[in-house]
Amino acid sequence: MIVNLLDYTLDELAEVTGLSPSFRVKQLYHGIHSGLKVSEISVLPLETRARLEQFAVGVEIQKAFKSADGSEKYLYQLSDGNIIEGVFMPHAYGNTLCVSTQVGCRMGCAFCASGIGGLVRNLTAGEILGQVLAVNRYKGGSKDKREITNIVLMGSGEPLDNYDNVTRFFRLVSSPNGINISLRNISLSTCGITENIYRLADEGYGVTLSVSLHATTDEARQEVMPIAKKYTIAQIIEAVKYYFGKTGRRIIYEYSMIKGKNIDYFDAVRLEQITKGYPSHVNLIMLNPVKEKNLTACTAKDAERFLQRLKDRKVSATIRRSFGNDVGGACGQLRRSHLNDENKAKRVTKPANAKK
Ligand code: SAH
């Protein structure tokens, strides 16, 4: 595989490229962390740039799809030709980018498009970071002018199934020499691989931990999430309590409401038990349609009733606003795409730096 310069720290970059003196290495690092290609870093001598052309830098935005709600979905091309997806979501407090951590996914959740076809490969740290830097630049930002303020690891892939690259990404994205996004502004969403929740807690990254729950008994959870055969809800509760103890960060649960499956009175009772005794919040999500899957969303009225039942039991919960449905960018809709796939959404732009 082609070496990707965004995979490396400043010190490593000197070694990998053989570039010197150190101020040149810094110029290179600053340039690529602003989202530039090597050829665009005009402070570097032309011959240096030419020599560095052998390396890849990050990922390239191939297409952007603008949703009516202000969000935007991107298709990114990787250096080996694989395509991944991501979503930009504008908020009053800043802009969030949803990034992918794997090409495909091997978790096989019953409601999710990302796992259709299984896992293709892990993304490297530089490919995860590359998504952030590409969109930051696309939105007019640079290393010192952040247009992306928050990141959620909620695109395709299971971040705790790619632990080393994801944590390297955390170190790179929060590096003071780079885009320097605080780990406090990053959320990692997991289907609940508990041993890596402990590891993340012990290594002190302090990102917000979101756990995809989607059911309140192990039996029901196993029906929709195969990983539930390996980790019980009791084991997850133990792990998230440990995470809270180490980081002081409130635990977020994600809960997609599925018609006839997981939103009755007893689910509310059990959710109260599951979330009791430590700071937590439940994000209720209306199940988004995925054409290959036969599960359906509940009605808005059912959702409101379930929310009220939780509130009656003093469970902190909200129905999460969904972004990007019209462009296939909502939760569970991101998939391994092919550029020539017909996408009904209008393609709005081809960024200036995209390949012809
Ligand atoms: N693998 C990680 C990251 C995926 S994040 C995880 O499991 O948490 C995406 C979130 O969207 C997860 O909570 C996932 O369970 C949820 N999701 C997947 N498919 C969905 C769908 N069709 N509708 C609503 N939410 C969905």
Please describe what this structure looks like.
There is one protein chain. The chain has 356 residues and is an alpha/beta fold. Helix content is 30%, strand content 19%. It has ten helices and 13 strands. The strands form two sheets. Strands 12-11-10-9-8-7-4-3-2-1-13 form an eleven-stranded mixed β-sheet. Strands 5-6 form a two-stranded antiparallel sheet. A hairpin with a 5-residue loop joins strand 2 and strand 3. The chain starts with 9 loop residues before the first helix and ends in a 7-residue tail after the last strand. It binds S-adenosyl-L-homocysteine. S-adenosyl-L-homocysteine binds next to strand 8 and strand 10.
- Rounded average pLDDT: 92
As a whole number of angstroms, the C-alpha radius of gyration is 21 Å
The ligands found in this model are: S-adenosyl-L-homocysteine
Percentage of residues assigned to helices: 25-40%
Order of helices and strands: HHHEEEEEEHEHEHEHHEHEHEE
Distance between the termini: 22 Å
Biggest sheet statistics: 11 strands, mixed
| Total number of helices | 10
By secondary-structure content and strand pairing, the structural class works out as: alpha/beta
β-strand amount: 15-25%
Query: Largest beta sheet: what is the strand line-up?
Result: 12-11-10-9-8-7-4-3-2-1-13
* Shape type: elongated
The total beta strand count reads: 13
Q: pLDDT under 50 segments (min length 5)?
A: 339-356
